Amino acid sequence: MRYLSAMSMLVCLLLFSGSAQAFENGASNTPDSRTQQVSPGQFKESYEGIGLTEDTKIYLTLTSRYRLRTNDYADDQDFYQYLRVHTDAVKLGDGTVRFAAFARFADDIDGDHKKSWGDNYYYYHRDALDTQLGYDDWAPRLYNGYAQFDGVIKNTVLNVGRFYLSHQNTFQLDGADASVKLGEMVEVYAFGGKPVSYYYDVDDDTLFGGGINVKVMEQTKVGAEYVRLDVTDIDDDYTKFRLDQAIPNGNLVLAYTLLNDAATVNAEGTYEIVSTGTILTLKYEGLTDEVDYENSYVVNPLTNTLLAESKYSKYEAGVYQAFLKNFAAGLTYETKAVSGTENFDNRDYSRIKGKFDIYGLPSENTYVSFSVDYWDVKNTPDSDDNERLQYGVQVSQKVGRTMDVWAGTSFSRYEYDYINDRRKDSVRSYYIGGQYQPTKILSLMADLSMEDTEFYDDVDTSLDKNYTAELWANIIF
Q1: CB-based contact 266:253 (threshold 8 Å)
Q2: 140-153 per-position pLDDT tens digit
Q3: Can you tell which superkingdom this protein's organism belongs to (predicted)?
Q4: Coarse DSSP helix, strand, coil percentages of the chain, rounded to the nearest 5 percent
Q5: Which positions ≥6 away from 94 have C-beta within 8 Å?
């Protein structure tokens, strides 16, 4: 039973993880958002290290990535080089200091000269990399580069450089962040600097704020955070409150977010029935005020939450069960009710998600996962009907001690045709890949995928098939 409980909790976290975000439309990715930054996927982080001193090592991960995209009209070849660096903590005064950095360089092997709309449909492959290369050779990016001073100032952790805040918000910042412990129960923090963007001029933009975390009782924590966003065309006050409460076999979270005069309320709960290893989850999200277009500035990484949106309430309930040692199943129901003006991104719907996983069958180290996602969504002028069914399967297998292979297929709900301002249906992807690690310091990975889409049917059906091949080499020191 202990095995079932541990496995069910682990898979539940994978299936239901991710706290609800205030202002739901803000969850959509912009080119600057953290989830769009490529990392070496399944490659291991560096773990051996190179000795700097008797007690200190530096750890390096050098990753090369080649990507080929092709269809009946054109090819596109890109090359990316990533470097991750971090050190052990080094003694400094009464505390320690450690350093970390993550950088990227890239190039388009083909280039995009004379490849445009009227030539050979190369526009399908044009992306942010091509745009950046137009004014910046090798498209450099520094995702993070900072020093962390822990205890150098008594009871204080200080980050200086480029980093992600790790408090209630995850803004990327060029600046400083200091956390100070005031005894065992209270921590205060403050941060400030400039926002980071790889695409837009943020020279005049600033961000600063702070917060407090209090351990009220052994199982109860409360926190509050204020952020002042002073970015182009927008000055915003962004305040968050959060309560974390541990309960027997579970936990509860309550949060309140206030963006100027628009607010959201979030509530989440997780509970395990220990006797059966059953995981139950409940979520609620409500936007209590209208967010108008005057607050909309989508492209800025700090303010992608500021989309125009009507008041709504969203509810979700889920159950997850592991059984017979090799099997696990999950089911969630979600519904949203909009009380104001609706559009494609903010309208009533009901949704059912299902997942069935098989571990260790038919052979050891085999993982098979089936998923289904059914949507019943209210019609809008730019959607054809109100029912969508997504489904997919993923299979992975470890081969010996040095190789992993995988294959699968997934179905996407919509693609957006920005020319005609319409959403189109039926986008299915197929993929197959493998990773080989012959030594501790070297990993190789290949991944092939095909997208079968109806997106270009009204232009040319031969564009339905689009292929992508990726090759990765990871050197770990």
Answers
A1: yes
A2: 889 899 999 999 99
A3: Bacteria
A4: 10, 55, 35
A5: 151, 152, 154
